[in-house]
Amino acid sequence: MVDTVQIILLLVIVALTVLLVLLGIQVFFILKEFRNTISKANKVLDDTGLIAQSVSRPLASFSSIATGLKAGSILTIIKFAKNMLSKDEDEEKKSSK
User: Fold this and answer.
1) How far apart are CA 49 and CA 55, in angstroms?
2) What is the DSSP letter of 41?
3) Model-level pTM?
4) Integer Cα distance of 77 and 95 in angstroms
5) What is the dihedral of CA 79, 84, 88, 90, to 10 degrees?
6) What is the largest CA-CA distance in the chain?
7) Over the stretch 21-58, which tens digit does the pLDDT of each residue have?
């Protein structure tokens, strides 16, 4: 009736089917865990971007303030030098009279 070769072949097919199903389940869990890891890494990168933006805004404001102060101090120095030169010219005119 049933040959021994057919029984062995049936057992091998059943064993391979069970192994492939178990392997498929393991791959599913691995891919699910990989997806969770990728989403966590994406969240970390988003948070890092937000932190970088929150740090760069005050630094840009500080840079603008520093540039304004620098420009203001240069203008003050120019005005001071101009006043000093005009005072020197006034004194020379008074002394030459």
Assistant:
1) 10
2) H
3) 0.49
4) 27
5) 50
6) 143
7) 999 999 999 999 999 999 999 999 999 888 888 877 77
Sequence-distant (≥ 6) Cβ neighbours of residue 49 within 8 angstroms: none
CA distance 94 to 87: 10
Q: DSSP code of 1?
A: -
Q: How many CA atoms lie within 13 A of 51 on its CB side?
A: 6
Query: Band of the pLDDT at 93, cuts 50, 70, 90?
Result: low
DSSP single-letter state for residue 52? H
Q: Which CA distances in Å does 35 have to 30, 42, 48, 60?
A: 9, 10, 20, 37
Give Cα 47 distance to the centre of its chain: 8
Chain length of the chain: 97
| 78's tokens | 């120019």
Q: Which amino acid is at 82?
A: K
